[in-house]
Amino acid sequence: xxxxxxxxxxxxxxxxxxxxxxxSGSKIGQVNRQLRRSYDANFKMMVxxxxxxxxxxxxxxxxxxxxxxxxxWRAQKDGLKNAHSQRKAFxxxxxxxxxxxxxxxxxxVDEKRKDGMPxxxxxxxxxxxxIARELNIPTAEFxxxxxxxxxxxxxxxxxxxxxxxxxxRLPSDSGELLSFQRYIGNADQTPAFFDMPTxxxxxKKGEKSVIIKSTGxxxxxxxxxxxxxxxxxxxxxxxxLKRKTVPNEAMPAGIIVRAQEKGWMETELVVDWLKVxxxxxxxxxxxxxxxxxxxxxxxxxxxxxxxxxVLDVVVNKPFKDxxxxxxxxxxxxxxxxxxxxxxxxxxxVRLLCEWILHxxxxxxxxxxxxxxxxxxxxxxxxxxEDDLLWEEPEDGSEE
Length: 399
Known about the structure:
Layout: H1 7-10, H2 18-24, H3 30-35, H4 41-53, H5 56-63, H6 67-75, H7 77-82, H8 99-114, H9 121-134, H10 146-155, E1 158-160, E2 185-193, E3 202-204, E4 221-229, E5 238-242, E6 256-260, H11 267-278, E7 292-294, H12 305-308, H13 310-333, H14 349-361, H15 365-374
Parallel strand pairs: 2-7, 5-6
Antiparallel strand pairs: 1-3, 2-4, 4-5
Helix pairs in contact: 4-5, 5-6, 8-9, 13-14, 13-15
Protein name: HTH CENPB-type domain-containing protein
GO cellular component, one term: nucleus
Domain HTH CENPB-type: 89-162
């Protein structure tokens, strides 16, 4: 091949002589591999413009491509216009089996994301099932599976954004502290916020700003004292509000609410908790000797949480995972009051208490039992349960 067109030098072809082809084609099929090349969207648009101003044959000769390529690229013109100029593979958007369902799901996502609402995988799957019912799609044909969700996300240029956290490190002198094995209950304080915007949302790829709408009360919180026993029993949540008095509104059954000006679990409230929660647990009135594990710097040294704090090992994660779900459902429902400036008001105390109860109920008793054994707090002292330190719980609640 001699007399290569001028543009070939710019594209890195150079001139290819028959001698070069003869040498490069010494192996079977090597000639075709040597001549085969890919073209980016910018080059294809150059060919399309030439073909439209003259014809397909002249454009093919001028740019050294086959006429069938020119015809195919002209058919893909609209897609190539919107493609990245250096993109070389363009197969067009691949539609799913239920195109109307995909369209309505994406419209829902776009609508909620424009308002800054958080969208999770579960929200999309629930919405898809709802739309499928409206379109009379049989359940046997569409189940909003994880596979469908992944393909739908890929087809529509959607992705998830995540954040990470740092793990704790064990202190060097932790050996002696691990010898304690016979504890009955574990209690821990954890914050529950009125505003819990999820750090993960479905959003278009490539956009730099990912905004999630909230009520603007990310710092407003209550303190929740959670407690559980080695047999899997969960004691009533003890909520401390950051205010001087408890609201007059009726609180849901099964939760205890108190008020403290700074929202802290101070000494008086700890004594109150011992009376109304710990003292009223099953068997508590028998006055038998017992021990509680409280997460305080004088009782659990720094860095020992992963070995002694059952609630942090297996309980707090499912609790804190379920709490934002109820908040997100409430945010997406639109059933909330507005401030005079049109902003969403923070949820009422009673509603937050209901979410806390729901999240606490969702914690599996089996995971609590496993957590005590994993922390080596309730294992049989003969060593027969030592293997539980490395086994995962059956319900998969532990990460």
